[in-house]
Amino acid sequence: MKRTTKAAAALLTAVLATACAQGSATRDTGTAPDGKVTLRYFTFSAAPDHVADLDTIVAAFEKENPKIDVVVETAPYADYFTKLQTSIAGNTAPDTFELNYENFVTYASAGSLLDLGTAAAGDDYQPSVYAAESLKAFTHGGKQFALPASFSTVVLFYNKSLFDAAGLPAPTADWTWAEEKAAAAKLTDKKKGVYGDFQPVQFFEFYKTLKQAGGEFLTADGKKTAFNSPEGVKAATWLVDKVGNTMPTEAEIGGTADYDTNLFKSGKLAMWHNGIWQFAGMADAPFEWDVVVEPGDQTKASAVFHNAIAASATTKHPAEAWAWSRFLTSSQTAATTRIKASWELPPISDQATLAGYLDNTAKPANRQAVFDSLKSIALPPVIARQQEMQDAMTEELSNAAAGRKSVQQALTDAAATIDGLLG
Amino acid sequence: MTGAKTAEVSANPTGKAASSAPAHARPRAVGPRRSRLRYAGTVALFLLPSAIPLTLFTLIPMAGSLWTSLHEWNLITPMRWVGLDNYVELLGEDRTLAAFGHTLYFIAGYLPLVYAGGFGLALLLNRAMRGRNVLRAIYFLPVVTSWVVVALMWKWLLNPASGVVNWLIGLVGLEGPGWWTDPNWAMPSIILASAWKDLGFVMIILLAGLQAIPQEYRDAARVDGATGFKSFRYITLPLLSPSTFFVVVISLINGFQVFDQVHVMTGGGPAGATTVVVEQIYDLTFRYGRAGAASALSWLLFAVILIVTLIQIRAQRRWVNYG
């Protein structure tokens, strides 16, 4: 009996000791005995199309900095911020990570980010390598909490082969909603499963089309909503009316992931509102396609998305984190790799390097449209309860699209909910 | 000594007569204090393997969530003390009530369905028939399958445009519903998937209960002239009531905590039609940065489950028959 108890106790101790040892292994400081530092980098924009491009940049960086080993971790955008929040809350934040503009302010004001200005001190860093506006976008309280890494815009993709087959002229930069609507109607052939148009019915498309229609999302002081207006109705109607006519319904899409991407790629979608991050994925599509600046209504307005690299306030390797952030955002290798791979655009000031984007012979041919779309941009409204606002807007638009509510009723209800979030 | 102790603590193999056996058997030893202490130490040692994980993974996190529920916290900023504000705020929000309403809707559909289905299967597979064990194993398979796999499978089956179910409905010339893309059909879709997955669990428990009913009772009933339905009504049902009670309590608790299938199949949509309480807790924490409010909602849910379970335990005296 005694022996059994002792044996059991010994076994238990052994199990616990193992468990504790495993637990402490994750609290590694990331410095190997040979002085090599492991630096974690967490990103949403690399997978799945640009992992190899990121590897190229990492390899170049590690060659210049043999004492640093960059470990890349990726997550799809939909899960990215959940994982990032949880890792910060659990004290296992990656040393460096990607942030988009909409989330930057939250993280900077929460004190989660390293002040890169301090890390840069005593370095040959030149702020002028970045486009000044981009750099400024990622300051908070006068401090540089992130470095701009890339930006992208939304354009109108079109399947030129489908337009040619129907004997229709391809879209041009002068197009308005009316031309898009007429062409979409002619190109839709439901029997063949071909749709004329695809524009997601959600918050991001709405604030932009609202601006195209000449409306505003919030009042000038930002304290109330302003979208429940004739312009708002016009913009929402523009989105909602496509559903079931020139675009598949929610039930037809059936929650399939990347439905629109696959529809376009399979040659069954004539026009597609999407971002320039889709260029690389469409490169080998077996038909002719190109892009133009999105058609406008009262005015042109294109959505711009801006990503940056930040370092965790709790990183044990601030100097290495700074070196990597800087390399990833402004080195010649990083900029040319991005341009060559059509991996969004680097926010650098060097026009000669940027011009390489236009010389790229990969599709699309009309790369000038990307730069043209920057001439008139629409920025998303940003409020403290951002995600709740986006969800409320998307939900009401979906209600209108599915015919559960009139467009007017959906906007009235969305305005009431969002005013509540602002108040 | 070893032999004596083994006899004292060994479980009754049938478990049936547990109430008559001294389950809380104390050591016969009334000897010196030291030996009693040593006995307590031995008991404590054997409890450790379950006490440690219970403390680490249940009790401490529970205390943590109670603490969090009194704060405002978005996971990345330091917590800010707000007292009971989260509870007050939640009770004043329409969507809290809606979330409990959706959860009750789920339970109201799920519980009868899974019970009736599981009971039917148990009765069927309790009879002597070929391939009985294989069938039992097959019906139990979904229970041990990951919820994500099952939810994705049902999502495909019930896909309004390309799913097998609507294709079959189409064959008889009808148009299938929008299932989980239609607010009116989304909850029934989830109920269907949930009942399908848990059928096997209910079946196994009730099957065990059925097999524990001694044949003599049925024989005696037959001698007294009770056959078929009467025997079922007055012998089977009452003697099965402890198993039924167990199944109902467990299924109800599971019903209140429904999440995985909702999260995978609808994410709470469309138009919020399937936002059950735990889905709301998830959204509050990970989408809306309101971990404090989410913790408060967890405790509200805990209170509701506790009350409902206490009522059930009270009520069992009236209908549960421990023979």
TrEMBL record, chain A:
Pfam families: SBP_bac_1. Keywords: Signal. Residues 1-21 form the signal peptide. InterPro entries: Bact_solute-bd_prot1 (IPR050490), SBP (IPR006059). This is Sugar ABC transporter substrate-binding protein. It comes from Acrocarpospora macrocephala.
